Amino acid sequence: MSTPAEHAGTTVDGADVADEEGRAKAVDALCDELAGVEASGWYAAIEVTRPWSRHNPRLTGEFARTTAVRRYLHRELTALVRAGAQVTVRPSRAALPFDDPGFFAALDEDRVDARSKKLFLFGPERMALSCDRLGHYTGTPAESFQRHVLFTNYAMHVEAFLERFPDAEAPVRPGVQMPAYHHRTEAGDGVTLVNIGVGPANAKTITDHVAVLRPDTMVMIGHCGGLRNHQQKGDFVLATSYQRADHVLDEVLPRDVPVIPNHRLNVFLVDALEAADASYRMGIVHTTDNRDWEFNQGVTLAAMQRSRSVAVDMESATIAANGFRYRIPNATLLCVSDKPLHGSPKLSADAQQFYETSKRHHLGIALSALDRVRREHPGGLPSQEIRSVDEPLFGGPSDA
């Protein structure tokens, strides 16, 4: 293993870089230094000095698997340098192997200071483990994930995705738990689709790990049970909020914390729905951890009635809650596949016909909205609603 002395560090002062070409080269040097430190068997540290900030002038954090987040880091560091920050990359400490007892202790998220904002939200041990697990669960390396991530629980959406993007990267081995497919772009702002299967446990697992990649968006495009009289099979549901009966995140995010989708992303989805002349309803989605809630209806039905929910599913609130925790703009676009309260349960023959007619339409609407995000917000969607009250922005001089 190399020693830290071989990587004395690289510093870029935004005050000394006057043009975009110079900034790009300077930030490339910072990212190259990150990769070099990591290749030497060390965790890399980033130190940021922001002369405009009165309350948080100096931020610092450690990184691992920087190749998986290089494009994200390049974008964020460029914004910092452009604003006049001084950024230093240097070796921090020797990277721990997964079987080191200290590695387990370092995974505890409760030690993270959220005031460091999203760039430093995870420790290097957490990043290393999550990137490794992404490869295990999805059959594709973490480096393949794109800036926009779609989640589905049906293979039919995978079929539609591969029809749309026949050159998409697929899992390298069969039988993985949550296979991922990547429509890659040179800028890394393409789309990844992950078939997460059914249930909130899988939804939590995959978003726990995807979060370390700091994606620009996460969107659930699954199916739901429609709860209103005038909904029809094939109608869409755009979530405006969630009733969390999934339980998997209750210990880390109390259920009385409001969780809502990203407003701008929802606006883009509405526009895409309108452009497609699609029938849809906006409202609260009830997410349950009980696939057979119909067998013991009382508690679930009463909760859905109190909340005025328009749909029920098993993943959406979990993805949204983890998006909130990890400061990732997210949204939910569901398609009604059954109406459990109106004599129209999900039956095999009907379901297959419905899936075949809806899959391309559903995926196309979501992709249209993401295209607009990519065009109008290349630096990421506004995310003020998922920032802590004392959590600094990385922006310009208005940031305290």
Report a brief summary of the structure.
Mean pLDDT is 89; it is low at 394-399. The protein is of the alpha/beta class. The chain contains ten helices and 13 strands.
Provide a descriptive summary of the structure in words.
The chain has ten helices and 13 strands. It has 400 residues and is of the alpha/beta class. A five-stranded mixed beta barrel has the order 9-12-11-10-13, surrounded by four helices. Helix 5 packs across helix 10.
Helix share, percent: 25-40%
Secondary structure tally, helices:
10
Task: For the largest sheet, list the strands in their spatial order.
Answer: 9-12-11-10-13
The largest sheet is: 5 strands, mixed, barrel
> Termini distance?
41 Å
Overall, the morphology is globular
**SSE order in H/E notation?**
EHEEHEHHEHEEHEEEHEHEHEH
How many runs of DSSP E, i.e. beta strands? 13
Low-confidence spans: 394-399
Derived structural class: alpha/beta
Q: Round the mean pLDDT to the nearest integer and report it.
A: 89
Assembly type: single chain
Strand content: 15-25%
What is the rounded Rg?
22 Å
Descriptive key words:
400 residues, alpha/beta, four-stranded antiparallel beta sheet, 10 helices, globular, disordered C terminus
What's the arrangement of secondary structure elements?
Blueprint: E1 10-13, H1 20-39, E2 42-49, E3 58-63, H2 70-83, E4 86-94, H3 101-105, H4 124-138, E5 148-152, H5 155-164, E6 180-183, E7 191-195, H6 200-210, E8 217-220, E9 223-226, E10 236-245, H7 263-275, E11 280-288, H8 297-307, E12 311-313, H9 316-325, E13 330-338, H10 348-376
Parallel strand pairs: 5-7, 5-8, 8-13, 9-13, 10-11, 11-12
Antiparallel strand pairs: 1-4, 2-3, 2-4, 6-7, 9-12, 10-13
